[in-house]
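Handout, section B. The chain below has 512 residues.
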Amino acid sequence: MKPDYLIVGSGLSALVFGALMAKSGKTVQILEAHEHPGGFGHTFTMAKKYTFNAQFHYVWDCGEGQTVNRVLKKLGLEQEVTFERYDSEGFDHMRSPEHSLDIPSEPEELIQRLSALFPAHGDLIRKFVNEVEKTGAGLKKLSPPIKPIELLKHSNEVFSAVQYLNSTLQDVFDKFQLPQAAQTLLALQWPDFLLPPNQLSFYAWVILFRGYQAGAFYPTQHFEHVINSLVNVIESHGGQVLLNHEVTNFRVTDRTVTGVQAMDLTTHQTHEFTGDTVICNIDPKKAAKMIGESQFSKSVRRKLNYEYSASNYMAYCVVKDIDLREYGFGKWNLFHTGHHDLNEAFAQMYDRNDFSNPSFAITTPTLLTTASGDCPEDSQIVEFLTVANYNYFQELRDNDRKAYNQKKQEILDSILDVVEEHYVPNFRKYMVFHITGSPTTNERFCWCPNGNSYGSSLIPRNMGMGRLNHETSLNHFYFCNASSGYPGFAATFWTGALLYQRLSGDMILGNS
């Protein structure tokens, strides 16, 4: 078949784009190198009874009228794919050496809680939180599709946003002179970005922080159901999702991409695939190297010159004969640090590969929904996440496999020591299964260069006008990926839907 749209890669933005196009009557064919669709959103099963999602934890923009909800309605899935909301009184539980803070949905409540912890800084805290709100409102008006009249009507918020174009989160903390301990509590969800405050774009932090305040969610039937539902829309409308097909080359004639060459990894045979339009969900920089960077315009080549985000370390664990709700876990995440300064915490782990005092996230998917499916009824899944350096782990794996495995175990032991000391005594006694993943695991199973977690790094330089978008400068060829849009569940829904809107003219997104 020669489809209207040949899509290489089945990450979430590609599945959203493909499902919307298939639903609209277009023919769609997707090629995916992995055995599961979904990219970072794919689900895998271990020991025949435990299912884990590769990288997704909690999501936002899923409420009525928000991006994810709009897309699901367009696909007729809004009744089938539903979400459970995290506790609005505290969706992220922040724990630092001296303080605890549960992040609430209401900004005013956040001001009250922080002011109670730091009474001498109440005015500064209020000014900072108000600035976050104003900047977030301005960023919403500046996001595509831009409506000039909205910019004029909300010029105050837009100006507030524009002034922070090159700012890190640390820059804004310093501007408002927040006490160090308050900075640490507010930035403790750093694993959502894999960057410390002194590198993280203030824009990126504001978008995510406010997004989760407006509603943090988890899929009622887990992430696997979301991915499968999108695949079903594509297949039920005559499309194909071909797994175990690795794209090895692009076919380009007169600056027009006509198709790809792909190897069937089960038979090791190579096949040609063509499409009227080719959508690239694989890493844009990687694709550009395969095509030949000289084929692209200078402006696109400049935008392709991005740094990859950091990578991560994951521990997927199962506990039995214990209810983690009795130990302070529930419909929220927990973020822990033993450091007063997250910039130092990050440097210790990422630059020096020292995890003796780890900072990390804990998520408990079994407690987020009453739907079964991720493990037996007498068990609960708990996952730990922190940053890890790809180059360090690649060198270990390539040169000393034993040392590589030892390092993964050492990190897990450091995390579990903290868990047993501060949260769940004798946690190891209840742990019946665990598996760990490093940056090279990311690269192997999610096909991401350097094991990156978020595409391009979320530093200020990558969050402004020079950010890559769908345009490639080649004919019938478009990027649709976290680096050409934005990373994360809601943001990749938006990326796929925005490309659909641009190519179809069907205006399903708004600026509200």
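Note. The mean pLDDT is 94. Compare this with the example in section A.
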